[in-house]
Amino acid sequence: MPSTTSGRLLRPAALIAAALLATSVAACGSSDDPTTAAPSASTTASASAGTTAGVLGIRDPWVKAADKGMTAAFGTLVNDGDADVTITGASTEVSPMELHEMTMKDGKMVMQAKPGGIVIKARSSATLEPGGDHLMLMNLKQPVKAGDELSFTLTFADGRTQTFTAVAKPFTGAQESYAPGHGESPMPEMSMSPAS
After folding, report:
1. How many Å apart are CA 196 and CA 192, to the nearest integer?
2. Could you tell me how many helices (H) and strands (E) the chain has, helices first?
3. 81 with 123: CB under 8 angstroms?
4. Using one digit for the tens of pLDDT, what is the confidence trace for 65-89?
5. Confidence at 114, pLDDT banded by 50, 70, 90
6. Model's pTM, two decimal places?
């Protein structure tokens, strides 16, 4: 017989939905032991579940928690369409943003703006990850704490836009170090050494 709450009858589907909600809320809690690996799919289920259908599917979106300066957003972009899709810009309320890539320059791995944007080929996916392509948040206006949910808007070459939400996670991998670089804004360098 189905369970009751406050004298009301709960259907099995409602019980399953309640269990899934409780699991996803518990998964978003912060850990006392920050990991050196990217958050797993289970820890970002609630953020990715909220992504609505749009130009791209966005799986496991997350942001590196940071108190100031710069940070980045990551995830997997899925293009189920028959044509390539190009992201030409990104925005969020907490910071100006740029599309970035990692590349070798003078024997060092450096971060730079990605010429031409981020292309997701038809019927394929592209991963935004530390040490690779990513959405860079420049000059944070406020701290991004673990557990915060940030809203992002992607702009595509054809003028369409898509909004998604990503949760902030602690991440100590890739050991980013930001140093003055080209132009007026500091460009970060990234050491790929493991965290100590």
Report:
1. 12
2. 2, 14
3. yes
4. 999 999 999 999 999 999 999 999 9
5. very high
6. 0.65
